[in-house]
Amino acid sequence: MTSTPLMIACWKGNTGQVAALLNTGAAVDDEHMPSGGRALMVACDLGHEQCALELLKAGAAVDAVENKQWTALMFAAQGGHEQCALELLKAGADANYAKADDGFTALLLSCQYGHEQFESALLKAGADPNKASNDGRTALMAACFSGHEQCLLELIKAGANVNYAQLPSGHTALMLSCQNGREQCALALLKAGAAVDAQLPSGHTALMASCQYGHEQCTRALLEARADPNKANNEGVTSLITAAEAGHEQCLLELLKAGAAVDKQGPQEWTALMFACSSGHEQCTLALLEAGVAVDHATANGATALTVSCAAGHEQCARALIMAGAVVDATEEDGWTALMFCCQNGHEQCALALLKAGANANAQNNEGTTSLMLSCQEGHGKCALTLLRAAANIHWRTADGWTALEIAQLHGHVELRRAMVAHV
Protein backbone atom coordinates (compact mmCIF):
# COMPACT_ATOMS: atom_id res chain seq x y z
CA MET A 1 0.00 0.00 0.00
CA THR A 2 1.32 3.47 -0.88
CA SER A 3 0.57 6.54 1.23
CA THR A 4 -3.02 6.50 2.47
CA PRO A 5 -5.25 9.60 2.63
CA LEU A 6 -4.69 9.51 6.41
CA MET A 7 -0.91 9.61 5.98
CA ILE A 8 -1.19 12.46 3.50
CA ALA A 9 -3.39 14.42 5.90
CA CYS A 10 -0.80 13.88 8.67
CA TRP A 11 2.00 14.95 6.34
CA LYS A 12 0.11 18.20 5.66
CA GLY A 13 -0.69 18.68 9.35
CA ASN A 14 -4.41 18.90 8.59
CA THR A 15 -5.91 17.89 11.94
CA GLY A 16 -9.51 18.38 10.79
CA GLN A 17 -9.04 16.06 7.86
CA VAL A 18 -7.30 13.46 10.07
CA ALA A 19 -10.26 13.52 12.48
CA ALA A 20 -12.77 13.27 9.62
CA LEU A 21 -10.96 10.30 8.05
CA LEU A 22 -10.79 8.49 11.38
CA ASN A 23 -14.51 9.14 11.96
CA THR A 24 -15.34 7.57 8.63
CA GLY A 25 -13.41 4.41 9.46
CA ALA A 26 -9.88 5.01 8.10
CA ALA A 27 -7.51 2.33 9.38
CA VAL A 28 -5.25 4.09 11.88
CA ASP A 29 -2.35 1.62 11.58
CA ASP A 30 -2.21 0.88 7.85
CA GLU A 31 1.41 0.57 6.74
CA HIS A 32 3.06 2.40 3.88
CA MET A 33 4.82 0.09 1.44
CA PRO A 34 7.68 -0.55 1.16
CA SER A 35 8.85 1.50 4.20
CA GLY A 36 6.40 0.13 6.74
CA GLY A 37 5.74 3.64 8.02
CA ARG A 38 2.46 4.61 9.64
CA ALA A 39 0.42 7.78 9.96
CA LEU A 40 1.56 8.30 13.58
CA MET A 41 5.20 8.20 12.48
CA VAL A 42 4.52 10.76 9.75
CA ALA A 43 2.83 13.14 12.19
CA CYS A 44 5.62 12.82 14.78
CA ASP A 45 8.40 13.12 12.22
CA LEU A 46 7.00 16.47 11.12
CA GLY A 47 5.95 17.68 14.58
CA HIS A 48 2.20 17.74 13.94
CA GLU A 49 1.17 17.26 17.56
CA GLN A 50 -2.60 17.58 17.10
CA CYS A 51 -2.61 15.03 14.30
CA ALA A 52 -0.64 12.66 16.53
CA LEU A 53 -3.12 13.21 19.36
CA GLU A 54 -6.06 12.33 17.09
CA LEU A 55 -4.31 9.14 15.98
CA LEU A 56 -3.50 8.11 19.56
CA LYS A 57 -7.12 8.71 20.58
CA ALA A 58 -8.12 6.39 17.74
CA GLY A 59 -5.86 3.67 19.13
CA ALA A 60 -2.71 4.00 17.01
CA ALA A 61 -0.03 1.52 18.09
CA VAL A 62 2.35 3.81 19.96
CA ASP A 63 5.43 1.54 19.75
CA ALA A 64 4.93 0.17 16.23
CA VAL A 65 8.15 0.00 14.18
CA GLU A 66 8.76 0.56 10.50
CA ASN A 67 11.16 -1.47 8.37
CA LYS A 68 14.26 0.27 9.75
CA GLN A 69 13.02 -0.32 13.32
CA TRP A 70 12.19 3.31 14.02
CA THR A 71 9.25 4.17 16.26
CA ALA A 72 7.14 7.33 16.28
CA LEU A 73 9.06 8.44 19.40
CA MET A 74 12.39 8.14 17.56
CA PHE A 75 11.09 10.17 14.63
CA ALA A 76 9.96 12.85 17.06
CA ALA A 77 13.36 12.71 18.82
CA GLN A 78 15.26 13.31 15.61
CA GLY A 79 13.23 16.44 14.92
CA GLY A 80 13.07 17.59 18.55
CA HIS A 81 9.27 17.66 18.63
CA GLU A 82 8.74 17.82 22.38
CA GLN A 83 4.94 18.04 22.37
CA CYS A 84 4.68 14.94 20.21
CA ALA A 85 6.99 13.18 22.65
CA LEU A 86 4.82 14.14 25.61
CA GLU A 87 1.71 12.77 23.94
CA LEU A 88 3.48 9.54 22.95
CA LEU A 89 4.92 9.02 26.42
CA LYS A 90 1.52 9.77 28.00
CA ALA A 91 0.12 7.06 25.73
CA GLY A 92 2.68 4.58 27.04
CA ALA A 93 5.53 4.81 24.52
CA ASP A 94 8.62 2.89 25.65
CA ALA A 95 11.22 5.53 26.58
CA ASN A 96 13.98 2.90 26.51
CA TYR A 97 13.16 1.17 23.23
CA ALA A 98 16.37 0.47 21.28
CA LYS A 99 16.70 -0.51 17.64
CA ALA A 100 18.02 -4.05 17.29
CA ASP A 101 20.48 -3.25 14.50
CA ASP A 102 22.41 -0.43 16.19
CA GLY A 103 20.93 -0.04 19.68
CA PHE A 104 20.01 3.62 19.15
CA THR A 105 17.36 5.03 21.47
CA ALA A 106 15.22 8.15 21.37
CA LEU A 107 17.37 9.61 24.15
CA LEU A 108 20.59 9.10 22.22
CA LEU A 109 19.04 10.70 19.13
CA SER A 110 17.70 13.70 21.03
CA CYS A 111 21.14 14.32 22.60
CA GLN A 112 22.91 13.85 19.29
CA TYR A 113 20.79 16.60 17.76
CA GLY A 114 20.76 18.81 20.87
CA HIS A 115 17.04 18.69 21.63
CA GLU A 116 17.21 19.52 25.32
CA GLN A 117 13.46 19.78 26.01
CA PHE A 118 12.80 16.47 24.32
CA GLU A 119 15.62 14.90 26.33
CA SER A 120 14.10 16.22 29.57
CA ALA A 121 10.74 14.65 28.72
CA LEU A 122 12.39 11.29 28.07
CA LEU A 123 14.41 11.38 31.29
CA LYS A 124 11.28 12.27 33.30
CA ALA A 125 9.56 9.30 31.68
CA GLY A 126 12.31 6.97 32.90
CA ALA A 127 14.76 6.84 29.99
CA ASP A 128 18.01 5.25 31.14
CA PRO A 129 20.81 7.87 30.86
CA ASN A 130 23.44 5.11 30.76
CA LYS A 131 21.91 2.86 28.11
CA ALA A 132 24.48 2.28 25.37
CA SER A 133 24.09 1.57 21.69
CA ASN A 134 25.50 -1.60 20.15
CA ASP A 135 28.83 0.12 19.50
CA GLY A 136 29.02 1.35 23.09
CA ARG A 137 27.85 4.95 22.63
CA THR A 138 25.75 6.57 25.33
CA ALA A 139 23.57 9.66 25.17
CA LEU A 140 26.28 11.49 27.13
CA MET A 141 28.85 10.67 24.47
CA ALA A 142 26.48 11.76 21.71
CA ALA A 143 25.92 15.11 23.45
CA CYS A 144 29.66 15.65 23.98
CA PHE A 145 30.62 14.67 20.45
CA SER A 146 28.20 17.24 19.03
CA GLY A 147 28.85 19.87 21.71
CA HIS A 148 25.39 20.06 23.27
CA GLU A 149 26.26 21.27 26.75
CA GLN A 150 22.70 21.64 28.06
CA CYS A 151 21.85 18.07 27.08
CA LEU A 152 25.00 16.94 28.85
CA LEU A 153 24.07 18.80 32.05
CA GLU A 154 20.61 17.21 32.04
CA LEU A 155 22.16 13.76 31.69
CA ILE A 156 24.63 14.37 34.52
CA LYS A 157 21.75 15.55 36.70
CA ALA A 158 19.91 12.32 35.82
CA GLY A 159 22.85 10.17 36.92
CA ALA A 160 24.80 9.58 33.72
CA ASN A 161 28.16 7.91 34.34
CA VAL A 162 30.75 10.50 33.31
CA ASN A 163 33.53 7.88 33.30
CA TYR A 164 31.80 5.22 31.21
CA ALA A 165 34.21 3.95 28.56
CA GLN A 166 32.96 2.90 25.15
CA LEU A 167 33.85 -0.68 24.27
CA PRO A 168 36.02 -1.80 22.66
CA SER A 169 37.63 1.58 21.86
CA GLY A 170 37.79 2.84 25.45
CA HIS A 171 36.69 6.39 24.56
CA THR A 172 35.11 8.42 27.32
CA ALA A 173 32.83 11.43 26.99
CA LEU A 174 35.73 13.66 28.05
CA MET A 175 37.95 12.32 25.29
CA LEU A 176 35.24 12.92 22.68
CA SER A 177 34.68 16.46 23.98
CA CYS A 178 38.38 17.30 23.77
CA GLN A 179 38.87 15.61 20.41
CA ASN A 180 36.16 17.83 18.95
CA GLY A 181 37.03 21.02 20.81
CA ARG A 182 33.92 21.10 23.00
CA GLU A 183 35.38 23.15 25.84
CA GLN A 184 32.14 23.76 27.77
CA CYS A 185 31.29 20.07 27.68
CA ALA A 186 34.79 19.22 28.90
CA LEU A 187 34.49 21.70 31.77
CA ALA A 188 31.10 20.28 32.82
CA LEU A 189 32.45 16.73 32.77
CA LEU A 190 35.52 17.67 34.80
CA LYS A 191 33.32 19.44 37.33
CA ALA A 192 31.22 16.26 37.57
CA GLY A 193 34.31 14.16 38.33
CA ALA A 194 35.45 12.86 34.95
CA ALA A 195 38.82 11.11 35.20
CA VAL A 196 41.17 13.61 33.56
CA ASP A 197 43.96 11.11 32.77
CA ALA A 198 41.85 8.13 31.65
CA GLN A 199 43.57 6.27 28.81
CA LEU A 200 42.50 4.28 25.78
CA PRO A 201 43.97 0.77 25.40
CA SER A 202 46.58 2.51 23.21
CA GLY A 203 47.45 4.85 26.08
CA HIS A 204 45.98 7.98 24.48
CA THR A 205 44.39 10.53 26.80
CA ALA A 206 41.97 13.43 26.44
CA LEU A 207 44.94 15.81 26.65
CA MET A 208 46.65 14.09 23.73
CA ALA A 209 43.43 14.33 21.72
CA SER A 210 43.05 18.07 22.36
CA CYS A 211 46.70 18.66 21.41
CA GLN A 212 46.44 16.54 18.28
CA TYR A 213 43.55 18.61 16.97
CA GLY A 214 44.77 21.96 18.27
CA HIS A 215 42.02 22.71 20.77
CA GLU A 216 43.82 25.19 23.00
CA GLN A 217 40.89 25.89 25.34
CA CYS A 218 40.33 22.20 26.04
CA THR A 219 44.06 21.76 26.59
CA ARG A 220 44.04 24.57 29.15
CA ALA A 221 40.94 23.20 30.90
CA LEU A 222 42.50 19.74 31.22
CA LEU A 223 45.78 21.10 32.54
CA GLU A 224 43.95 23.28 35.06
CA ALA A 225 42.19 20.08 36.19
CA ARG A 226 45.68 18.60 36.81
CA ALA A 227 46.03 16.45 33.71
CA ASP A 228 49.54 14.98 33.58
CA PRO A 229 51.42 16.82 30.78
CA ASN A 230 54.09 14.12 30.74
CA LYS A 231 51.91 11.02 30.44
CA ALA A 232 52.87 8.98 27.38
CA ASN A 233 50.89 6.54 25.27
CA ASN A 234 52.02 2.96 24.62
CA GLU A 235 54.44 4.14 21.92
CA GLY A 236 56.02 6.76 24.17
CA VAL A 237 54.26 9.74 22.56
CA THR A 238 53.46 12.57 24.97
CA SER A 239 51.04 15.46 24.56
CA LEU A 240 54.00 17.77 23.93
CA ILE A 241 55.25 15.57 21.11
CA THR A 242 51.71 15.38 19.73
CA ALA A 243 51.32 19.18 19.69
CA ALA A 244 54.80 19.69 18.21
CA GLU A 245 54.29 17.19 15.40
CA ALA A 246 50.87 18.62 14.54
CA GLY A 247 52.13 22.21 14.72
CA HIS A 248 49.73 23.46 17.37
CA GLU A 249 51.85 26.15 18.99
CA GLN A 250 49.26 27.40 21.49
CA CYS A 251 48.64 23.91 22.87
CA LEU A 252 52.39 23.41 23.09
CA LEU A 253 52.80 26.66 25.03
CA GLU A 254 50.08 25.62 27.47
CA LEU A 255 51.88 22.33 28.05
CA LEU A 256 55.23 24.03 28.63
CA LYS A 257 53.58 26.43 31.07
CA ALA A 258 52.18 23.40 32.94
CA GLY A 259 55.59 21.80 33.29
CA ALA A 260 55.83 19.45 30.32
CA ALA A 261 59.30 17.90 30.14
CA VAL A 262 60.78 19.59 27.09
CA ASP A 263 63.44 16.92 26.45
CA LYS A 264 61.30 13.84 27.12
CA GLN A 265 61.95 11.30 24.37
CA GLY A 266 59.32 9.50 22.37
CA PRO A 267 59.50 6.83 19.65
CA GLN A 268 63.01 6.23 18.22
CA GLU A 269 64.40 8.53 20.94
CA TRP A 270 63.01 11.59 19.15
CA THR A 271 62.18 14.67 21.19
CA ALA A 272 59.34 17.12 20.58
CA LEU A 273 61.88 19.38 18.86
CA MET A 274 62.75 16.69 16.34
CA PHE A 275 59.08 16.05 15.55
CA ALA A 276 58.43 19.79 15.12
CA CYS A 277 61.45 20.17 12.81
CA SER A 278 60.65 17.06 10.80
CA SER A 279 57.16 18.43 10.13
CA GLY A 280 58.34 21.98 9.43
CA HIS A 281 56.59 23.75 12.28
CA GLU A 282 58.77 26.80 12.79
CA GLN A 283 56.74 28.42 15.60
CA CYS A 284 56.73 25.23 17.65
CA THR A 285 60.46 24.90 17.01
CA LEU A 286 61.07 28.45 18.26
CA ALA A 287 58.88 27.88 21.34
CA LEU A 288 60.76 24.73 22.26
CA LEU A 289 64.12 26.42 21.78
CA GLU A 290 62.93 29.31 23.97
CA ALA A 291 61.98 26.72 26.62
CA GLY A 292 65.54 25.41 26.67
CA VAL A 293 65.26 22.18 24.72
CA ALA A 294 68.54 20.40 23.99
CA VAL A 295 69.22 21.59 20.43
CA ASP A 296 71.81 18.88 19.70
CA HIS A 297 70.09 15.87 21.23
CA ALA A 298 71.06 12.85 19.15
CA THR A 299 69.37 9.47 18.91
CA ALA A 300 71.29 6.20 19.06
CA ASN A 301 71.88 6.38 15.30
CA GLY A 302 72.97 10.01 15.52
CA ALA A 303 69.87 11.77 14.15
CA THR A 304 69.39 15.34 15.39
CA ALA A 305 66.75 18.01 14.93
CA LEU A 306 69.01 19.64 12.34
CA THR A 307 69.49 16.49 10.26
CA VAL A 308 65.77 15.72 10.19
CA SER A 309 64.77 19.29 9.33
CA CYS A 310 67.33 19.40 6.49
CA ALA A 311 66.33 15.99 5.18
CA ALA A 312 62.76 17.28 4.89
CA GLY A 313 63.79 20.66 3.49
CA HIS A 314 62.39 22.84 6.26
CA GLU A 315 64.66 25.83 5.85
CA GLN A 316 63.13 28.04 8.56
CA CYS A 317 63.41 25.33 11.17
CA ALA A 318 67.00 24.66 10.12
CA ARG A 319 67.85 28.38 10.40
CA ALA A 320 66.26 28.54 13.87
CA LEU A 321 68.35 25.59 15.01
CA ILE A 322 71.53 27.09 13.58
CA MET A 323 70.78 30.39 15.34
CA ALA A 324 70.32 28.41 18.58
CA GLY A 325 73.80 26.97 18.19
CA ALA A 326 73.17 23.58 16.60
CA VAL A 327 76.36 21.80 15.51
CA VAL A 328 76.13 22.00 11.71
CA ASP A 329 78.55 19.15 10.98
CA ALA A 330 77.20 16.63 13.48
CA THR A 331 77.18 13.17 11.89
CA GLU A 332 74.84 10.23 12.13
CA GLU A 333 76.31 6.77 12.72
CA ASP A 334 76.83 6.23 8.99
CA GLY A 335 78.71 9.51 8.69
CA TRP A 336 75.90 11.50 7.10
CA THR A 337 75.66 15.22 7.89
CA ALA A 338 72.75 17.62 7.61
CA LEU A 339 74.33 19.01 4.43
CA MET A 340 74.35 15.58 2.84
CA PHE A 341 70.68 15.04 3.57
CA CYS A 342 69.57 18.33 2.05
CA CYS A 343 71.79 17.89 -1.01
CA GLN A 344 70.53 14.37 -1.65
CA ASN A 345 66.96 15.68 -1.54
CA GLY A 346 67.56 18.89 -3.47
CA HIS A 347 66.92 21.40 -0.69
CA GLU A 348 69.12 24.24 -1.91
CA GLN A 349 68.03 26.82 0.68
CA CYS A 350 68.86 24.49 3.55
CA ALA A 351 72.24 23.84 1.97
CA LEU A 352 72.90 27.58 1.69
CA ALA A 353 71.99 28.12 5.34
CA LEU A 354 74.31 25.33 6.45
CA LEU A 355 77.22 26.49 4.29
CA LYS A 356 76.78 30.05 5.51
CA ALA A 357 76.98 28.69 9.07
CA GLY A 358 80.27 26.99 8.25
CA ALA A 359 79.23 23.47 7.25
CA ASN A 360 82.03 21.46 5.68
CA ALA A 361 81.27 21.16 1.96
CA ASN A 362 83.78 18.29 1.66
CA ALA A 363 82.74 16.10 4.56
CA GLN A 364 82.55 12.41 3.63
CA ASN A 365 80.28 9.72 5.00
CA ASN A 366 81.46 6.20 5.87
CA GLU A 367 81.47 5.25 2.19
CA GLY A 368 83.52 8.26 1.17
CA THR A 369 80.52 10.01 -0.40
CA THR A 370 80.33 13.81 -0.24
CA SER A 371 77.37 16.17 -0.48
CA LEU A 372 78.45 17.05 -4.03
CA MET A 373 78.37 13.41 -5.08
CA LEU A 374 74.89 13.01 -3.62
CA SER A 375 73.67 16.07 -5.53
CA CYS A 376 75.13 14.63 -8.74
CA GLN A 377 73.58 11.23 -8.13
CA GLU A 378 70.10 12.74 -7.82
CA GLY A 379 70.55 15.44 -10.46
CA HIS A 380 70.13 18.42 -8.14
CA GLY A 381 72.03 21.00 -10.16
CA LYS A 382 71.38 23.99 -7.90
CA CYS A 383 72.73 22.16 -4.88
CA ALA A 384 75.77 20.97 -6.84
CA LEU A 385 76.66 24.45 -8.07
CA THR A 386 76.07 25.91 -4.59
CA LEU A 387 78.56 23.39 -3.21
CA LEU A 388 81.11 24.16 -5.93
CA ARG A 389 80.84 27.85 -5.07
CA ALA A 390 81.57 26.85 -1.48
CA ALA A 391 84.79 25.10 -2.61
CA ALA A 392 83.50 21.53 -2.74
CA ASN A 393 86.19 19.27 -4.20
CA ILE A 394 85.12 17.95 -7.59
CA HIS A 395 88.00 15.45 -7.81
CA TRP A 396 87.47 13.39 -4.66
CA ARG A 397 86.41 9.80 -5.10
CA THR A 398 84.06 7.47 -3.24
CA ALA A 399 85.31 4.26 -1.65
CA ASP A 400 84.40 2.63 -4.97
CA GLY A 401 86.51 5.12 -6.92
CA TRP A 402 83.82 7.37 -8.44
CA THR A 403 84.13 11.17 -8.75
CA ALA A 404 81.17 13.56 -8.66
CA LEU A 405 81.44 14.13 -12.42
CA GLU A 406 81.44 10.42 -13.12
CA ILE A 407 78.44 9.91 -10.86
CA ALA A 408 76.49 12.61 -12.73
CA GLN A 409 77.38 10.95 -16.06
CA LEU A 410 76.50 7.48 -14.74
CA HIS A 411 73.03 8.60 -13.67
CA GLY A 412 72.30 10.38 -16.93
CA HIS A 413 72.62 13.94 -15.65
CA VAL A 414 74.57 15.14 -18.67
CA GLU A 415 73.57 18.81 -18.44
CA LEU A 416 74.58 18.90 -14.80
CA ARG A 417 77.98 17.46 -15.68
CA ARG A 418 78.46 20.10 -18.36
CA ALA A 419 77.51 22.88 -15.96
CA MET A 420 79.95 21.58 -13.37
CA VAL A 421 82.79 21.32 -15.89
CA ALA A 422 82.03 24.87 -17.05
CA HIS A 423 82.06 26.10 -13.49
CA VAL A 424 85.44 24.54 -12.80
Structural commentary:
This protein has helices at residues 5-12, 15-23, 39-46, 49-57, 72-79, 82-90, 106-112, 116-124, 139-146, 149-157, 173-179, 183-191, 206-212, 216-224, 239-246, 249-257, 272-279, 282-290, 305-312, 315-323, 338-344, 348-356, 371-378, 381-389, 404-410, 414-423. With 424 residues, the chain is mostly helical.
Number of strands: 0
- Number of H/I helices: 26
**Any low-confidence stretches, pLDDT <50, length ≥5?**
none
From N to C, what is the helix and strand string?
A: HHHHHHHHHHHHHHHHHHHHHHHHHH
Question: Which short descriptors sum up this protein?
Answer:
424 residues, 0% strand, mainly alpha
Summarize the structure.
The protein is an all-alpha fold.
List the helices and strands and how they pair.
Blueprint: H1 5-12, H2 15-23, H3 39-46, H4 49-57, H5 72-79, H6 82-90, H7 106-112, H8 116-124, H9 139-146, H10 149-157, H11 173-179, H12 183-191, H13 206-212, H14 216-224, H15 239-246, H16 249-257, H17 272-279, H18 282-290, H19 305-312, H20 315-323, H21 338-344, H22 348-356, H23 371-378, H24 381-389, H25 404-410, H26 414-423
